[in-house]
Amino acid sequence: MSNNIPIMTLDGPAGAGKGTVSRAIAKTLGWQYLDSGAIYRSLAIAVQDAGVLLDDIGGIVDIANKMDLRFGSGEAPSVFLYGQSITDRITSETCGHITSKIAANGLVRQALLQKQREFCRFPGLVADGRDMGTVVFPEAKYKVYLTASAEERAKRRFKQLKEKGIDVSLMGLAKEIEERDRRDMERSVAPLKMADGAVLVDSSDMRIDEVIDRCLGLLAA
Ligand code: C5P
Fold first, then answer.
1. What is the distance in A from the centroid of ligand 1 to the CA of 178?
2. For the segment 55-74, what is each residue's pLDDT rounded down to a tens digit?
3. Does some domain include residue 171?
4. 218 occurs within a structural domain
5. Ligand 1, atom 4, residue with closest C-alpha
6. Among 17, 60, 123, 201, which one is least packed by beta carbons within 10 Å?
């Protein structure tokens, strides 16, 4: 599937630091970066904009097949849906919440599979999500399951949103994250779990540079 292109997958629950770590690894190695969560989140925005109901799976799949989604190539993450920037809109926790509902459906996941696999190009790929090492790139040579305590993850996400000027309560956020993680872990299709052969990295008491080094160390092992 990946034609010997090296792949590192990073799966794990919300707020574990996957995005920051994956981006930094991709930059260091000069590899492609796949933010699969952003693809699912963009679909949720497209579905909302089209006024399609969350139980209309046919309608959602149709949008997934047709949506014109592009990622900016700059340093800061940017996402364009039908040419319009949706970078800010996909960041909200409300978007994450709706996304996890849509993402629980197998037909929806199937419709987004190819879009994700297209990111696998030379010289390599760092793929960040929930099912990267289990379903999308099971053949990946380097697999990480990145986690942190629920408290730490809520705090990190809180800080991240605050920096973006988004006002949320820490307690409310912790509850939302818990609910989203439960949904992602308990769904019957491609649930969040450790992939076979994945290395568990608990970043609760680690600095970001330590986590990055730990992941990069897998390449040398
Ligand atoms: O990673 P991020 O928080 O952006 O993901 C948002 C939601 O998208 C997750 O909570 C999950 O429901 C869904 N998702 C998924 N599979 C992936 C990536 C994200 O189901 N590979």
1. 13
2. 999 999 999 999 999 999 87
3. yes
4. no
5. 37
6. 123
